[in-house]
Write a structure and sequence with these properties.
With 343 residues, this protein is α/β, with parallel strands linked by helices. It has 11 helices and 20 strands.
Length: 343
């Protein structure tokens, strides 16, 4: 089969590799759509320990069952499917506590974890455990299904916020996670959703996704948000950026007793306005990956509660992947979400 193989920083090659064979309890999926994640791009540039060469990336994808491994029942060749890509062990204490998202023994399709590497979906075919297969209704496209994994991250973070009906919320970072955060916040009943970013086309997309207001980060964010909330501040700040400026501005604009959701991870270390956060009695809530949210997110799309399709700004054949990765890495593109497809 053909695959887009990562051989090292900025070295991606579309080449022939051996087609994987499903083992007992596994299925072979013919990839139809795979989305490029920001973490894939970071790995391509050499900035992710979760991408060790040689590796086939791709953990946001959908496709059709091409072959069943021994013992697999309840599905058939040709079925349209999505795949839950977090392959946790299920036996460690974290898994028993419902924290399968931080299981130290897990594999993640398309990445390199402590447990090892697992080739992903930027290829003609990918193997996955049958228990991770999600049936895909005809009403949901392969492209939409490829966005369920990042949606699950935003959905889990939103659930951490608690009751949102009638609340005033800000979202830092109008990339895919922030935009899906806007959608989830709106779906959960937030009254005012203020998108904050430095890129104008992303702010426009945020308004399209359900934000009530958009602020460019170059403006006086504190003054503007205070005016919008009659001087009180925001009930919840959803940080999908994870840089010092957004985290500390989030502490500033949150109301006393408010919540700062820490989702973005652009900076591994951040010096925060700790005393200010303590004196405001803020709740600092981290959120990482997902547990059951992939299946929940897919159902929300099926039910018509979310429109993730609008975020897809470009679509290319996987064969052009090396060129597309380099363009995205240049920082000169205006794309928000790119799909690589096997049509």
């Amino acid at each position: 089969m053909k695959a887009l193989v990562y051989h090292g920083p900025r070295d991606m090659r579309y080449e022939d590799v051996e087609t994987p064979k499903p083992k007992k309890g596994e299925v072979l999926v013919k990839v139809k759509s795979v989305s490029i994640c920001g973490s894939d791009l970071s790995g391509y540039k050499g900035g992710s320990a979760m991408r060790v060469a040689p590796l086939i990336m791709g953990h946001e994808f959908s496709g059709e069952i091409a072959r069943l491994g021994e013992g697999v029942s309840g599905m058939k060749v040709g079925d349209r499917v999505g795949v839950v890509t977090n392959l946790y062990c299920g036996t460690c204490q974290d898994c028993k506590d419902g924290l399968q998202n931080v299981c130290d023994n897990r594999f993640i399709i398309g990445t390199t974890m402590k447990a090892g590497g697992y080739n992903g979906a930027m290829a003609d075919y990918v193997v996955a455990p049958a228990v991770k297969i999600m049936p895909l209704p005809d009403s949901v496209s392969f492209d939409e299904c490829a966005l369920v994994e990042p949606l699950s991250i935003s959905l889990r973070a939103t659930k951490h916020a608690g009751e949102l009906k009638g609340k005033n919320v800000a979202v830092f970072g109008a990339g895919p996670i922030g935009l899906m955060g806007v959608m989830c916040l709106k779906s959960f009943g937030a009254k005012r959703i203020i998108a904050i970013d430095i890129v104008e086309n992303r702010l426009k997309m945020a308004l399209q996704c359900g934000a009530t207001d958009a602020i460019n980060s170059n403006e006086d964010v504190l003054a503007i948000t205070r005016k919008m909330t009659d001087g009180v501040g925001l009930d919840v700040v959803f940080d999908a950026a994870g840089v010092p400026a957004t985290v500390n501005t989030g502490i500033e604009i949150a109301r006393n007793g408010g919540t700062l959701l820490m989702v973005g991870m652009a900076s591994p270390k951040i010096e925060i306005e700790y005393k200010h956060a303590v004196c405001k009695e803020l709740r600092l809530q981290a959120s990482y990956m997902y547990t059951a949210e992939m299946r929940e997110g897919l159902q929300m799309i099926v039910d018509g509660k979310l429109n993730v399709r609008q975020m897809i700004t470009s679509r290319y054949p996987i064969s052009e992947g090396a060129r597309i990765f380099e363009e995205l890495a240049s920082g000169k593109t205006s794309d928000i979400k790119v799909i690589l497809a096997n049509d």
